[in-house]
Design brief:
The chain is of the alpha/beta class. Helix content is about 30%, strand content about 15%. It contains 10 helices and 12 strands. The chain has a 7-stranded mixed β-sheet, with helices on both faces.
C-alpha cells in the first residue's frame, strides 16, 4: 500500500492520513440511526444520491423523477413520504400552497441534472439548446438548461443547503460558460456557491468516477471552510471482483477485436483501428485487476481483461457502491448497468453529506438559542 509522509506521523495528523474503505459493500439494513436532517432529492433516478444521504444518517423525505420506470425502482427500495413523477419544470409551476410544508423546511435540496449533453464522450455542443427525445424522461426536452431550472426549484423551496452534481465535462471547454452562469444564478437568488471536482478513486469508491459538486447555501457559512479533500486508498478491481464474469456470450466479431488488443489498452479503439482502419469501440473499456475500475456508464460494455468477459451483475453493483440486495425490478444486466450508470455512487454522496452535518447542526443550535 502506498503511504504518504503523514501516515508515519502521530495522531495529530490523522486528517491527512490515507484511510481504508470497506463501506462499498453493504446491504439495505445497514442504514444508521437518523440524525434528524431532512433531504429532498430531484432527478432521483434509481436512488444513488438518496442512499448516500441515508448512509450518512439523513432522512430523505421525498423525491422527484421524470422517468416512471426509474421511479418504480426507487419506490421498490425506498419509502418516500413525498413522491413526484414529473418534469421538474412542471413541479416548479405547482402553487406553493399545494406543496407540503416540510418541503420548505429542508436542510438539503439535492439534484443531479441529467448530464449526457456535457459528457466528453457525447456530442456536447451539438445538443446544447436543442429539443431531443432523451432516455431521461421519455419526452422531447432540452437538458443543458436543467441546472438553471433546478436553481429555480432552489429559489422556490429555499433549503439551507443545496448539493448539485454533474459530470466533469461541465468544467471543460465551452461548457465553462455554464459554470459561470450557475454561479450567477445562485448569487441572484441569495445563495453563496462553490464547486469541487471530486474523484471516486480518492473517496473509497472502487470506480474512477469524476464528478463536479456544487454546494450552495443561504446560511452564514464560509464555503471555503468546507473540507472536500478525501484521502482514501484506491480500491483495485481484484479486491471486489466476482469469481466469474458475466455469462453473456461475447460475439465472435467482438472477441476478434478483444484478442487483438494489447495489455494496457484503455479500450478497443486501438484494436479496431488496427483491424478495421477506423476509430470506434472506444466505449468498450477494459477492467484490469491491478487498477481501479473505469466509470460505469448507462450502457456498460466494460470487459474484464483477466477472463475476457463482460462485468458480472455483482461487479457492477459493487463498483457502483450499490447495496448488494438492491431491487432493480429486473435482473437484466442492461437494466442494472443503466441504473448504476445513471446514478451517483451512494458512498460518494455519503462522503459529501458527512462533511455538511456539522454546519447544519450548528445552524439548528443557533436557531434554538435565538428562539
Amino acid at each position: 500500500m502506498q503511504q504518504s509522509i503523514f501516515d508515519l506521523l502521530g495522531s495529530e495528523f490523522d486528517e491527512y492520513k490515507t484511510k481504508e474503505s470497506n463501506d462499498w459493500y453493504w446491504h439495505l439494513k445497514d442504514y444508521p440511526k437518523s440524525n434528524g436532517l431532512k433531504v429532498f432529492s430531484c432527478f432521483a433516478c434509481g436512488g444513488g444520491s438518496t442512499m448516500g444521504y441515508k448512509l450518512a444518517g439523513y432522512d430523505v423525505i421525498g423525491c422527484l423523477e421524470i422517468d416512471k420506470r426509474m421511479n418504480n425502482i426507487y419506490l421498490a427500495n425506498h419509502n418516500p413520504k413525498f413522491n413526484y413523477v414529473m418534469d421538474i419544470r412542471d413541479f416548479n409551476k405547482i402553487p406553493n400552497e399545494q406543496i407540503p410544508k416540510e418541503l420548505f423546511e429542508l436542510d438539503i435540496l439535492d439534484g443531479s441534472p441529467p448530464c449526457t449533453t456535457f459528457s466528453m464522450a457525447g456530442l456536447r455542443e451539438k445538443t446544447w439548446g436543442k429539443l431531443k427525445k432523451f432516455r431521461e424522461g421519455q419526452k422531447e426536452q432540452t437538458l443543458d438548461d436543467l441546472s438553471f431550472v433546478f436553481i429555480e426549484t432552489v429559489n422556490k423551496l429555499k433549503p439551507k443547503f443545496v448539493v448539485m452534481e454533474n459530470v466533469e465535462g461541465l468544467t471543460k471547454g465551452n461548457a465553462w460558460k455554464y459554470v459561470q452562469n450557475i454561479y450567477k444564478h445562485f448569487q441572484e437568488i441569495g445563495y453563496k456557491v462553490k464547486h469541487w471536482l471530486l474523484k471516486g478513486e480518492q473517496m473509497g469508491i472502487p470506480q474512477k468516477r469524476h464528478r463536479v459538486f456544487f454546494i450552495a447555501t443561504r446560511l452564514n457559512v464560509d464555503l471555503e471552510s468546507i473540507n472536500m479533500s478525501f484521502l482514501y486508498r484506491p480500491i483495485l478491481f481484484e479486491e471486489i471482483k466476482t469469481k466469474e464474469g458475466s455469462p453473456i456470450k461475447i460475439s465472435d466479431n467482438l472477441m476478434t477485436l478483444i484478442n487483438c488488443a494489447k495489455y494496457g489498452d484503455r479500450n478497443l479503439e486501438n484494436a479496431c483501428r488496427k483491424l478495421r482502419g477506423k476509430s470506434s469501440f472506444f466505449n468498450y473499456c477494459f477492467v484490469y485487476d491491478n487498477q481501479v475500475a473505469p466509470t460505469i456508464t448507462a450502457h456498460c460494455n466494460n470487459i474484464r481483461w483477466s477472463d475476457k468477459k463482460f462485468l458480472s451483475k455483482k461487479d457492477m453493483i459493487s463498483i457502483s457502491t450499490f447495496p448488494q440486495d438492491y431491487n432493480f425490478l429486473s435482473d437484466n444486466p442492461d437494466n442494472i448497468a443503466y441504473v448504476c450508470g445513471m446514478s451517483v455512487p451512494p458512498v460518494m454522496i455519503k462522503r459529501v453529506a458527512e462533511r455538511l452535518i456539522n454546519y447544519l447542526k450548528s445552524e439548528d443550535k443557533n436557531e434554538r438559542n435565538n428562539s
